[in-house]
Amino acid sequence: TRPPKICGVTQTMWESDESIEKISQLVLTPEQDRYLQAPKYIEFVVVVDNRMYRKYSNNSNAVRTRLFEIVNIVNKMYRALDVHIALIGLEIWSNGDKIHVQSNDVLTLTSFERWRETDLLPRKSNDNAQLLTGIALDGSTLGITNFVEICNMKQSAAIIQDHSSKTVMASLMAHELGHSLGIEHDEYSCKCNGNSCIMSWKIGPGPFYEFSSCSIQEYQKYLINKRPQCLLNKPLSKDIVAPAVCGNYFVEEGEECDCGSPQECQSACCNATTCKLQHGAQCDSGECCDQCRLKGAGAECRAAMDECDFPELCTGQSAECPTDLIQRNGQPCENNQGFCYNGKCPIMANQCIAFFGPDAEVSPDSCFRDNLLGNGYGYCGRENGRYIACEPQDVKCGKLYCKHKTYGIPVLCKSKYFTDNLDFEMVETGTKCGDGRVCSNRQCVNVTTVY
Questions:
Q1: Residues 80, 302, 42, 249, CA torsion sign
Q2: Contacts for 384 with CB less than 8 Å, ≥ 6 apart
Q3: Among residues 113, 149, 176, 252, which one is catalytic?
Q4: 84 known ligand binder
Q5: Which of 199, 323, 370, 395 ranks highest by number of CB atoms within 10 Å?
Q6: Residues in the active site (predicted)?
Q7: Distance of alpha carbon 87 from the chain centroid
Q8: Contacts (Cβ under 8 Å, ≥6 apart) of 422
Q9: Is residue 164 classed exposed, middle or buried when 0-12, 13-18 and 19+ CB atoms within 10 A define those classes?
Q10: Please, are residues 348 and 334 in contact by the beta-carbon 8 Å criterion?
């Protein structure tokens, strides 16, 4: 018999004819490199529907214990990507479902996304939420998500059908979450060291699941190209709803440090068995910790990323670097090529380099006139499935065009195509589009009116 399908995702994010380059072969900007090295966290919420609650004998404690164990397994799977899954919310719909949960996975996902946006997010900020259901989804689908960016406030959500195996459940949850991190389904050529691949379209035999080298490369490429900022938010230990687990690399309530299991720990400052600091140690990790001692006040712990950023200094009282401070929006930068926006200096030249490599340049103005067309080749937005043409004054706030070679042949008006999230194709918000003007909501407006 054929193994069941894992997920209903059919669209892809990256261009199918573009090979995934190894990160070691890419020339990274200082900003890209700094982002890649920064610790990553996903603030994660799990919702259990009423059928699943009843499946476990209406026992909330049994459901919670099961989910804590599953999320712990998910965390172990994500260590290969060097990202921590922080369970900051667990809701059990014990008194009835808050949405109409049905076997049609697409309709249920749409309803759950709407509930997350209008009900959950206003009271519990999160990067991703998953609904676990006791209903049997139509066909062979066991999970579904939209292939969108992790920080998407509208659609960073998934539906998972409950499975008796905790490890299989963890792999399903890790799989759907992976799609929100730019990872597609594994091709048959992708290998997982003899284990089952998490991003396979079908459930493998297990008992161990891991990310393939293909998945790791796609994730890193996604980080470099998109730099999703929500992954940099470190959740407070008091916001974690799961019991503290000594050995998961995340300092939780009651812990002073966490360097992994005793077999994994490589810290001389932390006792891996107790998650307490060794005798005489002031700290274990953090930008302001050096060889188990706090750095003195005034030591630089975060260099200025560029002229739109400020350096941060250690306080002498904490191992953590203070909150990142940035230049005000609208401050001219890059020799007046751009204006500061949220700590960055977005200019089209750098966006082209991020898309196509160091030899890419911004296309001539004639290419941007294609944004007057209002079709897949040029537009300023899309509404109800219909492309919206740019107004003449806004053409440099629509689709981005770059000059670059394709298979050695120079292409004057080259652009990216993403089949799901069109925002990825566009000139970034805050980019200079004319003298004293910046892109805001796909319009080229006076910088003094938006900042």
A1: positive
A2: none
A3: 176
A4: no
A5: 199
A6: 176
A7: 15
A8: 381, 382
A9: exposed
A10: no
The three-class DSSP label of residue 207 is: coil
Whether CATH 2.60.40.10 fits 331-449:
no
Whether residue 341 has pLDDT greater than 80: yes
Q: How many CA atoms lie within 13 A of 62 on its CB side?
A: 9
DSSP state for residue 375 in the 8-state scheme: B
CATH tag for 6-13+27-237 (out of 1.10.1660.10, 3.40.30.10, 3.30.1020.10, 3.40.390.10): 3.40.390.10
Question: Given 3-state DSSP classes, what are the helix, strand and coil percentages for the chain, each rounded to the nearest 5?
Answer: 25, 20, 50
Burial group, residue 183, by CB count within 10 angstroms (0-12, 13-18, 19+): buried
Task: Specify whether 176 is catalytic.
Answer: yes
State the pairing for strand pair 338-339/332-333: antiparallel
The 10 Å Cβ neighbour count of residue 425 is 16
> Which pTM was predicted?
0.76
What's residue 11's pLDDT?
A: 55
Q: State the span(s) of the chain assigned CATH 3.40.1620.60.
A: 331-449
Cβ contact 151:228 at 8 Å? yes
Q: Is 31 helix (H, G, I), strand (E, B) or coil?
A: helix
* Nearest alpha carbon to residue 85 among 256, 294, 245, 321: 245
- Report the alpha-carbon distance of residue 333 to residue 308 in Å, rounded: 7
CA dist 220 and 81 (Å) reads: 8
Residue 211 tokens, joined: 């990310």
Q: Is the pLDDT of residue 211 over 50?
A: yes
User: Residue 48 belongs to what H/E stretch?
Assistant: strand 40-48
Cα separation, 324 vs 305, in Å, equals 10
State pLDDT tens for residues 26-36. Answer: 667 777 788 88
Relative to beta strand 361-362, strand 312-313 is: unpaired
Q: Residue 103 has what pLDDT?
A: 96
Separation between Cα atoms, residue 412 and residue 360, nearest integer Å: 10
Q: What is the DSSP string of 306-357?
A: STTB--EE--SS-SSPPPPPBPPTT-EETTTTEE-BTTB---HHHHHHHHH-
d(CA 288, CA 412): 48
Q: In the chain, which residues fall in CATH 3.40.390.10?
A: 6-13+27-237
Place of tokens 């139509």: 138
